[in-house]
Write the structure tokens for this entry.
Amino acid sequence: MEHGINWKDTYFSSSSRKVYTQNELNIPALVTFAKHTMNHAVPPLPDHFHENCFELTLVTSGSISFTVGKKQYDLSGSDVFLTFPSEVHSTNFLPLSAGEIIWFQLDISDPTKCFFLNEEASLDLFAKLQQLQHHTIHTKNTKIVEYIKEAFSLTVQPENKFLIAQYLTLALTKLVSLDDTTTEVTDDIQEVLYYIQKNITTPLMLDELADVAGLSTSQFKQKFRLQTGMTPRYYVNLQKIGVAKKLLAEGNSITHTAMELGFDTSSYFAVVFKRYLACTPKEYQKRHLQKDEIH
């Protein structure tokens, strides 16, 4: 028996979030196809599952963490997170940071109804998805991101349903051959990642990081984003917020934490913190200390 909400998305449309369901899509087995552009952190996803459905979430920019069981999976740009039918997952009380995700759910309960494919092709696709060994699949330098983005761009016109299904079929076909958790980070960018961790309490300027990589600033920005899926500034702030959470949980003051991490003012630190975690440092610290009192 599953523990969590049997989550069913409903139609929604705004400038930053669009959620289409079978009623709008009219594509067999495509239960949900959605996109959310987050300009700031949004509340976390609770424990939930999708009955009889695979769910694939593509991170097109920024970063996000999912949890299945006791294991956390950290994703960034061009990563796909896969959950299996009726598998409980959540963001483990972590908000969704600023960035963009596209997700869709594929119902496997009826192989005669899947993306206009015949039954044999559907069963073959379902079997290959079931055989995947990992929840996280890196799709950098492949056409998978392009196929999924193109499919979503076509949702504005109902008559595009056959093209949408074809693009998603192509994406899934490529994806099942990329059951691979490796990611390529070149030595120069890896050196920068080490440098950031070592110097996380300093301001860390862009030109400084480019010098560590031995690249011009423009070359560095482009290469860093290509390999990590994030801008250098976004990555640096994400790491700083991770350290800030630990410092606040240990009872350090907000001002001390801000200064310790190289922020000019505690007010600017609070702005950045809320952008990533959807709560202020004060709210985070209060919540964490209350949890400690309960335990």
